[in-house]
Amino acid sequence: MSQEELKQDILDVVTNCVKCRFCLAVCPLLDITKGWQGQGASGITLAIYTALKWEVEREYKEALRDLLFSCTTCRNCVVRCQETSVGVDLLDAIDKSRQFFVEEMYGPMPQQKKPLEFLERYGNPYGMLPSERKEWMKGLGVPDYSEATAAEVLLYIGCTATHDPRIADVARALIQLLKAAQVKFGILEDETCCACPTFRLGEQFLAEEIVQENISKFKSRGVKHIVTLSPHCFDTFLNNYPKSEMQGIKVQHYSQLLRDLIKQGRLVLKSKVEKKVTYHDPCYLGRHNDIYEAPREVLGSIPGIKLVEFNRCKADSLCCGGGGGRMWADFEAEEERLANIRVREAISLGAEVIVTACPFCLINMEDGVKSVGVEDSLKVIDIAELILSAIEEQG
Amino acid sequence: MANSDVIVSDLTEIICEENVSGDIFNRATYGQDAFGIDLEKSKIPIAVVRPESAQEVSKVLVYANEHRIPVYVRGSGTAFKGSSRPKREGSIILSMEKFTSFEMHKDDMYMEVGAGIIQLDLEQKLAGYGYLLPLNVGSKFSGTIGGAVAVNTIGHMVDTCIGKTIDYVMGIEAVLPTGEIIEIGTKSIRRPAGIDLTRFLAGSEGIFGVITRIRMRLLPDQKKAYVVGFFKELEDIGRAFIRIYQEKLPPPLYGELLSEEACAAPFRLRKMGKPRGSMALATTMGHTQDDADRQAEEIAKVFRTEKAVEAYVVTDAKEQEALWASRDNIMNILGVEEGEEKLLLGGVLECPVPLHALPDLIRYFRTDHKHSILHEAKLFVYGHVGAADLHAMWGVPASWPPEKRRQTTIEASQVEREVYLKWGSTSGEVGQTALRMAGWREMYGEAAYAMLLNMKRAVDPNGILNPGNLLEDEGK
Amino acid sequence: MKIAVCVREILDPEIPSKAFKIDAEAKRAIKLPEVELVISDYDARALEAALRIKDSLESEITVMSLGAESAKDIIRRCIAMGADEGILVSDPAFDDSDSFATACVLAEAIKKQNNFDLILCGIQEGDWDSGQVGSGVAELLGIPSVTRAGNIEVNDGKVVVERVVTDGRETVEMLLPALVTVSSEIGEPRYPSIRRVREAAKKEIPTWTAADIAPAIPRSEIVSLFIPSREAECEFIAGESPEEMGSNLALKLREAKAI
Predict the structure, then answer these.
(1) I need a labelling partner for B102 at 20 to 30 A (CA). Which of B223, B229, C131, C189 fits?
(2) Cβ–Cβ pairs < 8 A, chains A and B
(3) A356 and A298, same structural domain?
(4) How many CB atoms lie within 10 A of CB C32?
(5) Chain A interface includes C190 (CB < 8 A)
(6) Residues B427-463 pLDDT 10s
(7) What is the CATH number of domain B223-333?
(8) Radius of gyration of chain B (CA)
(9) Other C-beta atoms within 10 Å of B30: how many?
């Protein structure tokens, strides 16, 4: 879209905002900043709207940029507006505003340039050379995905697992589960980013280039079923890739596959895990894609487990703060981290474990546990790891 | 007039840096309200302040008086009459958002609350104790209790069933426009006889002072039962509620009406199929479930007598939730089907009428009024038929030029005014000032208007608190 | 206002250290196929400084680079960021130029254009970090120069530079034409969208060779180029108590002649 078209689109979307402010109560940013109404939800969209209408976006570009890129894209405002008000798609306005800003060279945040530059150069936001990317997989005996290996499932690991050792643990746990269930799966030897950071940061052109490359890979290797580790890859494949070109490819998050495998009896959970756990709904499984039950069914089938729910759970889950490109940026206006708030909520529930289903949530929650200083009483464990411990024989 | 940077810096000394903002976008967002039309650039306030105590409010008002700076007080800006938006240039927005104190005095049957508590939060807090918040306003997701008291609105609830907000107000702490702090009222559930200044502040729409804390009587929650009726003719719903009163049945807590057109989108959103006609909802209250159920049965009977094609007591909790949500989330009614042109909010009005005129009012909205542009727009009739207060909303196609859309808003308020004058009623939810003031003046006459202005001048000699809401300058 | 910005193409400094290898024979760093070439960061900031001047003053920015054919990519990226045109100076005769030779070649190229009011460079190159080229060019052109700019303002034929010094800032004013080297304190270079980059990729970049500019003789010669080996050994000092461990550590340090 041209800049003029983007601008008009943004104005068209936000013009419908009736300024009822219902969205403010659910915006996580207002919990971690000084809480001015201009700092979250409709405050952000109205700021962009006002700036574009008055044609002062250049004059205030830094303040606007800081505001615009602070949004975690958790989607709580959109859900609230849909259910109780006129149904403005605030995230659409924010997405388009980010595209507009990036094209004007007013954005993204300085810290976010590097992941974009790395994506262009090396196909991942962490700057890992292609040869480095496969390091974590050494010795696991996972086949390269191709029709020749008769693989049925493409396990899409995602960039964070190849870069962060903690997430590599989760990936390894999942691989063991798939092997235990005798799933015929493979991983792309030349896997690159799904393009999520480019979409979230408004770098539309690069996003489309990456998408085309990936679609060619999927088509030429006969991919029919993709299972992702990260809800972000999942959401990007499902909602950002052109539906016409993804026809015939089933996309699942691994929690959905695990649920299927458990139902089919291919994964038998016999070891007890006697822990009081609470499940943290990730924004990109939950509010973005309405997936609340599959992970709970999976957890529920663990013998001995006790599941307690956060007050703010399911569609009301409190964002961990990692979405929308925020894993790569810090914001001056913020005085607290969402993960710290979530950790304190878990402690007051008496939970011993926060269970996550997303690499960003996991990283943020573990940081939160350390910041709040409760490492001795609260652990952060991914669903895959928990299921694995329920399968393994007690030593 | 003092330079805006100086004002911001002065305010920072008075309050504290954390609670003063001179940021352009903060100012633009606080300076706008739910009335819809964008605020003119020139009226964007100079600063937004968030005091945390009556003392801080007092200091701000003293400063404003000294420098003749207009101050506009704000809960959440959802008054729908433009009362919280600045009418003068160079103003300060005083946001009550930090006044969120909550004190429960169960033994004495009252609570003391900060004016800035969001109504939904208060409702949920009280529910935990077994009390009912005696108001249910559509904008409760952001609306404050201070706003509800200042406007004296109970939203959807039926006045004849539980009274209005002001009936629960036992005491008020407020700051006068010149900065003095007053605390008035009583701690007894027997409210004062005679002069009670709480009655001059509650319902005053911010004219006579800034309400900072409110003492309110607690209302124990009761058992409820739910009725739904579907009618072929919308006017029959009006007749049904007239009958409820004529038969001396206890008025229900809620008596709602939603025309068939207005049901369409909410039903579709919740996958409830096509509406079986225009919908009437009622919620009865009783000390025992039996009591509530019996009242509900009686209302269902009345519905059937007034030609409901279907009327029954709703026992399925999920069904009740869906039916109520269709009515409650009123902005959903503008939703359109895939492929249809989007509808935008054109105009909305709120009209109580004498009971007998309920069917006439419906006809007035639909056919009898003479405003051509409204007749081109899409009409939705809904509202608190049990309180004899109906809403009409006009949706306009997104392709209409902004000028035509504006015209719809203007015509809607004209219809509203015509209804009040025709039937001798006035706003029961939204209030009387700002965009409603000209109508009020026309209705009640010059003597009443002069009395109002005199009272205002008496407590606000420099005219700094919410100036412009009484249209003081017009007709000079 | 005509501005020249000198930029250099370098190996991506963000690559992990184990991907950085030296060809001891050729006395050069090896470019592995999977490693990218990028613009030296200080040079990008110099361009940003030029773009900020262009934001408020009508200007024309020419980007110049001495390098290989591949350097046209970084020149084009500068155009994507808002520069108007670029010139590549490239020839086998210019290979392995040291700072002096580089300064000579760039100075000649600038003289050849002969119309710049302001020349901007990074304070030092992102690979060798010598920091001599900017000042060298100015000396060879006979124009004044100021290094380590944290802020640059142009008005009325003058440039006002805020220099970053150890204990604060120093403001220096120069008449144009002049040269300024730019430090990171100038701020973040703007991010060109990939759409802009692909658009700029179509732009023709002329190459000037030794036929256009005579090469200069490097004044220095690399004797040897190597990555120093670092061996680390970790020994945990034994002891029953912290005090004992402490005194054992002290003895070990004395033995190693560290204290």
Answers:
(1) B223
(2) 92
(3) yes
(4) 14
(5) yes
(6) 999 999 998 899 899 999 999 999 999 999 999 999 9
(7) 3.30.70.2190
(8) 23
(9) 30
